[in-house]
Design a protein that fits this description.
By secondary structure, this protein is α+β, with helices and mostly antiparallel strands. Helix content is 32%, strand content 38%. The strands form two sheets. Strands 2, 3, 4, 5, 6 and 8 form a six-stranded antiparallel β-sheet that branches. A three-stranded antiparallel β-sheet has the order 1-9-7.
Length: 239
């Protein structure tokens, strides 16, 4: 019986290594090697709105002053919608010269000042109001909206726990079929993956251009759930 179990263990090991790139494990007698996938799925708890503030003028000073005014508009729009400005993070102001071609030569034509803003919201009901206010302020050409989890590590841990339960169940089933029982965990490897999520673009100049605003395709729908998956390889002793 021991020889049969050991041979089966090597077969499982070979199949797992062929299917995925995981650490090679040398199976010992009276052990069983199993691999399993697990996942954790939950609704997002944080909305992330990202946009840039940009201004251009003939002089660096005027471009900077215009960018500062745009930042103040963003700050006021947040306050008007019950959002503390500290909920957003802003990057450094970047100043770059702007050139134009004239007479076959590149000549300076002004300066562009830009910065990036990231706003995180827990209250999803404020998303529509603040994106609309930013559109009215006309400070950015586009906005992107994405959903995420504040504590991603906790979600990964739960996915690992699910994968381990599945691996242990497989080991228990194999042991029962051979008249054995599963003992201690001798070895384990873990990989976690977060399903990529494309941000939702939101045009920010629709209101400013005079075009009537229409609800976004995702308006009033619940955001998709966040899915984190994990793969666990484990070696258990057999009693």
């Amino acid at each position: 019986m021991k020889l049969h179990i050991l041979a089966f263990t090597f077969c499982v090991l070979a199949a797992a290594c062929a299917a995925q790139e995981h650490p090679t494990v040398t199976a010992s007698p009276n052990t069983v090697y199993v691999g399993a996938d697990g996942k954790f799925e939950t609704a997002p708890d944080t909305a992330v709105i990202q946009f840039n503030i940009s201004s251009q003028d003939k002089t660096e000073r005027k471009a900077y002053d215009e960018a500062s005014k745009n930042v103040e508009q963003v700050r006021q729009a947040m306050r008007d919608n019950g959002i503390e400005p500290k909920a957003a993070s802003i990057g450094f102001f970047s100043v770059q010269p702007v050139y134009e071609w004239s007479g076959g030569k590149q000549k300076p034509n002004g300066y562009r000042v830009t910065t990036d803003v990231t706003l995180k919201l827990k209250d999803f009901s404020k998303i529509g109001a603040i994106t609309g206010a930013l559109a009215d302020a006309n400070v950015s050409e586009t906005q992107t909206l994405a959903y995420t989890l504040e504590n991603m590590d906790d979600a990964k841990n739960k996915a690992v726990e699910d994968a381990y339960r599945r691996a242990r169940n497989s080991a228990d089933a194999l042991a029962r079929a051979s008249g054995r029982t599963v003992g201690e965990l001798n070895y384990a490897s873990v990989d976690t993956f977060e399903a990529p999520r494309a941000p939702i673009p939101r045009m920010a100049r629709a209101m400013a251009s005079g075009v009537p605003a229409t609800p976004a395709p995702t308006e009033e729908f619940a955001p998709q759930k966040i899915t984190v998956t994990a793969h666990v390889n484990a070696v258990f002793s057999l009693k």
